[in-house]
């Protein structure tokens, strides 16, 4: 598992910081997918963060092409971010509430769905815990799970993309 950043990632993070300052934002979070088990999570904030700013998850010995156009030009950064935004995907299943997402009914249990699984409309795809209540999130349509965008036990916001069903 490599922890070395891609050169384009450094420029991408710098462009995000410029975008943060230019638009007077307090915080900006982006997840950049390169492929299976290889992504970049970036959280740029004007406030001190208790956790690392960027985390790399890479498959060993795999060459990668840049996911988007080079972010060396600050004007290109908003377009690259919009193109990589999973919330704009037509098959995106978004969170109906703020809470904690769980991919399985209980720790150690099989997940409700996996990438490549066929789902039926109304089938539970995950649970969101809000105020000690477990809310089953149903598939809005039948199809194949193409991507799972959240990890088990992570907090989610209202409208955040959870997974992609095509």
UniProtKB/TrEMBL annotation:
SUPFAM superfamilies: Single hybrid motif (SSF51230). InterPro entries: AcCoA_biotinCC, Biotin_BS, Biotin_Carboxyl_Carrier/Decarb, Biotin_lipoyl, Single_hybrid_motif. Transmembrane segments: none annotated. CDD domains: biotinyl_domain. Pathway: Lipid metabolism; fatty acid biosynthesis. The keyword Lipid metabolism applies. Residues 90-166 form the Lipoyl-binding domain. Keywords: Biotin, Fatty acid biosynthesis, Fatty acid metabolism, Ligase, Lipid biosynthesis, Lipid metabolism. One of its GO terms (molecular function) is acetyl-CoA carboxylase activity. Pfam families: Biotin_lipoyl. The keyword Lipid metabolism applies. This protein is a component of the acetyl coenzyme A carboxylase complex; first, biotin carboxylase catalyzes the carboxylation of the carrier protein and then the transcarboxylase transfers the carboxyl group to form malonyl-CoA. PANTHER family: OXALOACETATE DECARBOXYLASE ALPHA CHAIN. This is Biotin carboxyl carrier protein of acetyl-CoA carboxylase. The lineage of its organism: Bacteria, Pseudomonadati, Pseudomonadota, Alphaproteobacteria, Rhodobacterales. The gene is accB.
């Amino acid at each position: 598992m490599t922890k070395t950043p891609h050169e384009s990632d450094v420029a991408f993070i710098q462009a995000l910081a410029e975008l943060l300052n230019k638009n007077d934002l307090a915080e900006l979070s982006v997840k950049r997918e390169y492929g299976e088990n290889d992504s970049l999570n970036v959280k740029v904030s004007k406030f001190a963060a208790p956790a690392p700013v960027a985390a790399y998850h890479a498959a060993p010995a795999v060459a990668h092409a840049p996911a988007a156009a080079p972010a060396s030009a600050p004007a290109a950064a908003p377009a690259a971010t919009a193109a990589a935004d999973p919330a704009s995907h037509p098959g995106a299943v978004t969170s109906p509430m703020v809470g904690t997402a769980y991919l399985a009914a209980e720790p150690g249990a099989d997940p409700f769905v996996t990438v490549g699984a066929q789902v039926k409309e109304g089938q539970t795809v995950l649970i969101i815990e809000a105020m000690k209540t477990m809310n089953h999130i149903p598939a809005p349509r039948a199809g194949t799970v193409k991507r799972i965008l959240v990890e088990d036990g992570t907090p989610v916001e209202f409208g955040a993309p959870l997974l992609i069903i095509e």
